[in-house]
Write the structure tokens for this entry.
Amino acid sequence: MNSNLMEYLKEKERQIVDYIKSDPIQNLIKPRHIYEGVLSYLYRPAKRLRPSVLLMSCGCFGGEEKEKQAIPAAVGIELFHTWTLVHDDIIDNDPLRRGGPTVHTLIKEKSRDEWGLGNEPAAEYGTDMAILAGDIQHGWCISAFADCCLKMGVNALTVLRIIKYLETHTLCNLINGEAVDVQFSLANGSRPVTVINEDRVIEMLWLKTGILYEFAGLAGAMLGKDTADINDPDVQAIKTFTGKCGIAFQLQDDILGILGDEEVLGKPVGSDIREGKKTTIVLEALKNADSRQRELILGILGKKDCTDEEIETVRKLFIDLNGIEHTRKLALGYIKDALPYLDRIPDSKYKQLLYEWADFMVNREF
Amino acid sequence: MNSNLMEYLKEKERQIVDYIKSDPIQNLIKPRHIYEGVLSYLYRPAKRLRPSVLLMSCGCFGGEEKEKQAIPAAVGIELFHTWTLVHDDIIDNDPLRRGGPTVHTLIKEKSRDEWGLGNEPAAEYGTDMAILAGDIQHGWCISAFADCCLKMGVNALTVLRIIKYLETHTLCNLINGEAVDVQFSLANGSRPVTVINEDRVIEMLWLKTGILYEFAGLAGAMLGKDTADINDPDVQAIKTFTGKCGIAFQLQDDILGILGDEEVLGKPVGSDIREGKKTTIVLEALKNADSRQRELILGILGKKDCTDEEIETVRKLFIDLNGIEHTRKLALGYIKDALPYLDRIPDSKYKQLLYEWADFMVNREF
């Protein structure tokens, strides 16, 4: 199942890593801790969904030739995604990412091991370097997009419009999502900084994830058609399709955060519960809970040091109180909404891959 | 003295602020704390030297017409400078910037006042939002450069090459400078993480300041000549000139950090001493100190809670031990080196302004 997609993803992963490895910008990245921070996530195994969606969307209109020209843009969106992860990981105090330490944790440990720094100065140094490493990746991202023109011969105006869209519309919405997310988590417990309901949670999913998938479709289609017109109907159709599937992706992510296999995911399951992450799963379960169940959930949710047994209790309640099933239905709804937007696109292996990708969004286990 | 330059700077300040105010990207910047963080430094009084140098360099080749087209690029370099300040202020734990609170301090205070957050969560929230506010400014910077083409009609390829240069060469060197700076300050006291001598301090000045002034000259000249050729001899000449003057600017900044008037500067004098900033002033003074003086300086330098009297003691030693005079001579040397690079540029009011600017770099008191 999805074997074409899996093969395609593997091929793109290789092309993306090869391109990253060959980019001479790396010679400019110093000192060593910054260099190691900038590259760490990039070489860890990852699905590379955003760059692949960009390339599939490109192929739908421009075939293999345009897809090849768009490789730097695929690298660009991967770098964009990566710098936001590096900064978000600092903000969320996360220790792990893609099966290894987060950038701030990695550099903290290095400074402790290499220089014998104490715990506190090492943590501060790690955070400082991780902020800067993310900034470098942000710049590298823009450089990669520019290379679509400077190295691959794509029209300069097309590339400029894509860059402008990414750095205004996409960036501002994405950061709005992250900031609101932080405000959500401050509202934990008794302090109602913001009022949280399902609409707001979904809006946040759109901001934090849908928006970058929208961009992947938009940029890919513009490169495939070689058009600088953001309002082109094909561009808009693909953009809507990839954005809706992106929300389904995130809903599925929340499900895997509760039910998923730690080994397969490469991140600690239960961390969503420990962090008190506000998901549609939580809201639905709370809606259906009696007062005892409600108290049980709220007592454990966001408890940083809760036991495996407590995690298991909450997990079971989320299932029994329809939280998981409700969220799965939401995800399927987004995919169903998304599919008709592909109708106007001519048939091709790329269109077929987009269909498989949409299916993978709600049926994946990793 | 320098009255033409002062008038020019005032006019550009107005044009830059007007352009910033009218940029529709602001409607996208949410939530409110991020919006306030993004805009806070931009509207505080500032010299706007980097954008003005870009515009003067542009005018040297393209006159008033090209200078007008380059206004978004001037805004872009101001935004670039600003986001690096916002992130550096987090890293350096600085409370003040341009006569007001730093972004992370501002948002910390707002969250405390508005939501009643405790000191620690408020500080963490302030830092989180400041990281994101800087990221938005980074994106806005690129958007502004893109507008040179999209709104002002400059050749798209010229703009793309400028953006690529900024986001690779300029950015990587600048961040290298900031990272090495952090490592320098870790080397404070007994832990010699890095070996510090005058050559390394000057290299850091070049990275942290010279490099962005180089870019200002380079981008301005490319826009003025409407060339996408970074290696154009005029572009290279102006770039070298503005870079060398930029180092002189920073050396003078270090002098003002010791001798300057707090009121005029808008930042606390003595903070360089409290932070233990490694400058050419410090190194020269230590070189000429006897063992008692050396002990005195090292005992106070980097002492966060040192008294005004101790500051005064160190200040006097820096003067008596030739630290100030030596640094002033270094600065004058850079200006002297820089001036011949303007010889190839035809005479104009813009060239005259660049001469005045070079003079201002070493004779300013604010």
About this structure: The two ends of chain A are 14 Å apart (CA to CA).
